Amino acid sequence: MATSAPRMLRLGSLLARQAAPSSLLQQQFRTFSDNAAAEAAKAAPEAVKADSGSKGKIRGVQALIFGGLGAGMLYGYSLFTSQPPPSGPLAGPPTLPTGTAPKTSTPGDYAAVRDSISSLLEAADYDDGSYGPLLVRLAWHASGTYDKSSCTGGSNGATMRFPPECEWAANRGLAIARQLLEPVKAAHPWISYADLWTLAGVVAIEDMGGPSVAWRPGREDYSDGSKIVPDGRLPNATLGAKHLRDIFHRMGFDDRDIVALSGAHTLGRCHPDRSGFSGPWTNAPTTFSNLYFQELVNNKWRPKKWDGPLQYEDAKTGTLMMLPTDLALLSDRTFKKYVAQYAKDEEAFFKDFAVAFGKLLELGVPFPSAEKAAATS
User: Fold this and answer.
1) Which of 33, 104, 251, 288 gives a 20 to 30 Å CA spacing to 235?
2) Any catalytic annotation for residue 188?
C-alpha cells in the first residue's frame, strides 16, 4: 500500500484543482482534508503494529487512503486557490514584492534633478569616496569637443552615447559616469542626456565646495552618432603650452580661461587603465579648492620613475602627481602669472572658473536667440 500513497496525493490534487473555482467547494475540501488528517492521525498507530491482525490492517489501509487524500487535497488547495495555508509544510510560497515603477518628477523640476544627482555622489567604495570628480570629467569631455570655426561639437546632442566617441581613449572610464546617471534619467525622463550630463558636473562642483556655476537647460539629444566630430579635439596631457592654446583657443577661450579650467585638476585622480597616468594632484581630491595651484607652485616636481608615460611626482613625498600639461602652466610666462594669482587668491579662481566652466557647458548649444530667461543656478 505504500506505493499507492503518491497516487492518493495526485488524486487529491486533481480533485482540488476541479474544486478551485467554487469557494463553497473550497471550504468543503478544506473540511474534508482536516477530517482526513484527523482520521489518519487516529489510525496511524494501529497501522504500524506488526501483529494487529486483519482489523488493524484495514485500519492501516484506511489511514493511508484518507491521509493521502487529505494531504493531496491540502496540497492541491495550496496550489490552485488564492488563499494557500499560511504556514506549515504545505504552505504556499512566500509573497514577493511586485515593485513599482519609479516615480517621475514634473517636467521642468530641475531642483528635483539636482537632488537626485546629489544623492548618488558619495560612494565609499569608489576612488576617494565620491563620484563627483568623475561627473565633472563627463561634463567637461561632453562639452570640450567644440570648434568655433565650424560650429560643430560641444555638449548638444550627447553624442558620447554612441561609438566611436564613447570609445575614444580620452573618454575611457566615463561609461561609469554615464551608467551612474541612468537612474536619474529614469526618474526624470523629460530631461535630455545632454542637459543631465552638464548639470551633473555643475552639481558635483557645487556639492564638493566649489563655486555656483550658471546653468540653463535647452540641449537636445541626437538620435544617432552621425554628428560625432573627429577624435583629437580634447586635450592631450602629454603635450605642452602650444597644444593647450590650440585646443582651448579653438573653442573660443583665452589664456586666463585655460588656466582657470585647468584648476579642475584639483579634483580626482588619474587611473592607469584610463588615461595611462596614475595618482591624485592633491591630498584632498574630493574638495574643490585652489589647492591644485598651491601644490603646483610650492612643490618641486621630478619625473616619476615607472613604466608608464611621462608624469611628475612631488620630490618631498612622491605621492602627488602632475602631468606635462600641468607643468606647462609654469613654464609659460603668461600662464604662470595666472597660476600664481589663483594660488594666492581662491576667490579669484572660483570666480574665473565659474565663468569659464559655464561657458564651456554651453558651447555649440543653439539656445533660442530671443531667450531672455536668467540661467538656472
Assistant:
1) 288
2) no
> Could you tell me if 11 and 118 lie in one domain?
no
Pick the catalytic residue from 141, 168, 188, 197.
141
Residue pair 241/331 in contact by the 8 Å Cβ criterion:
yes
- Asked if residue 372 is part of any domain, the answer here is no
Domain that holds residue 301: 110-362
Question: Burial letters for 168-179: b for 16+ Cβ neighbours within 10 Å, e otherwise?
Answer: bebbeebeebbe
197 assigned to active site:
no
What integer pLDDT is reported at residue 57 of this predicted model?
47
The mean pLDDT of the chain is 82
How many domains does the structure of the chain reveal?
Answer: 2
pLDDT score of 36 more than 60:
no
208 in a domain, yes or no?
A: yes
* Active-site annotation holder among 140, 215, 281, 301: 281
Query: Which of the residue ranges 76-85, 182-191, 228-237 would you say has the lowest mean pLDDT?
Result: 76-85
Given 35, 64, 80, the domain boundary residue is 80
Which residue has better confidence, 165 or 53? 165
Model confidence, pTM: 0.72
